[in-house]
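Exercise 7. Given the encoded structure of a 255-residue chain, write a plausible sequence.
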């Protein structure tokens, strides 16, 4: 299981999204806007990236009116002003050298760069040059499901493979299904057809290799990832860190 997937599962368990729902909705609305801009318009039936963004918004209980408003604003319909968003990537290293890739949507590159650099510095990491870690990540569809029954997981694995998933991994009750980005929706639909409820489904930056971390560095890296994703302009932070199970358990149970 990738470091980011483990960390994201812990974040859901801690309820971090609910604690900052307003900020979350802003990020989801920006994600919808970018999907409209880069995916080919405001029709989710014709724009798979928008369909994914809408599904993410709904899974986080974003009101339908807010979703519709985000689409209208992105297309400039109904007199809604279009937000001039730029997608920016930052690359760096966490404590003990784990790679971190940060995806941001911003209206002010200087502000975002300053905030990201500050988070890296305070978290014991280093912001690097463009290209320093991006080579170690591939853009892939990633569906995660929390499955307690191994037999159920085995059935879903076969369903995913039949639907042209590229790879699967089942560990510690978490099933990860990897796809080509363009096949994410079809594989997700096949799994849902078997009654599965994915915890997440997104085009993700998946590390080619992982770096195991000792306890102290793992805890520092988890805090750094959280601080990055708490920034208003940051959509996602990805890592190739491999966290010890006991550290994740402590981190997840912390108040």
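Solution.
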């Amino acid at each position: 299981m990738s470091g980011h997937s483990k960390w994201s599962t812990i974040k859901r368990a801690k309820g971090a999204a609910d604690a900052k729902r307003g900020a979350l909705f802003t990020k989801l609305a920006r994600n919808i806007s970018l999907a409209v801009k880069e995916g080919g318009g405001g029709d989710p039936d014709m724009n798979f990236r928008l369909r994914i963004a809408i599904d993410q918004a709904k899974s986080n209980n974003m009101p339908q009116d807010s979703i519709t408003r985000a689409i209208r604003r992105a297309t400039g319909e109904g007199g809604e002003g279009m937000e001039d968003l730029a997608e920016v990537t930052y690359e760096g290293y966490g404590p003990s050298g784990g790679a971190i890739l940060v995806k941001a949507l911003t209206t002010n590159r200087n502000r975002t760069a300053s905030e990201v650099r500050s988070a890296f510095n305070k978290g014991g990491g280093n912001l690097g040059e463009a290209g320093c870690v991006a080579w170690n990540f591939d853009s892939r569809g990633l569906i995660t499901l929390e499955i307690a029954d191994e037999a159920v997981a085995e059935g879903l694995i076969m369903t995913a493979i039949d639907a042209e998933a590229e790879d699967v991994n089942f560990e510690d009750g978490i099933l990860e299904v990897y796809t080509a980005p363009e096949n994410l929706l079809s594989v997700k639909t096949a799994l849902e057809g078997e009654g599965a409820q994915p915890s997440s489904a997104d085009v993700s930056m998946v590390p080619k290799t992982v770096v195991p971390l000792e306890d102290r560095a793992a805890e520092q890296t988890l805090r750094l990832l959280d601080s990055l994703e708490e920034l208003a302009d940051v959509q996602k932070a990805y890592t190739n860190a491999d966290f010890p199970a006991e550290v994740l358990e402590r981190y997840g149970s912390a108040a």
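Remark. The CA atoms of residues 156 and 191 lie 7 Å apart. Students should compare their own answers with the one above.
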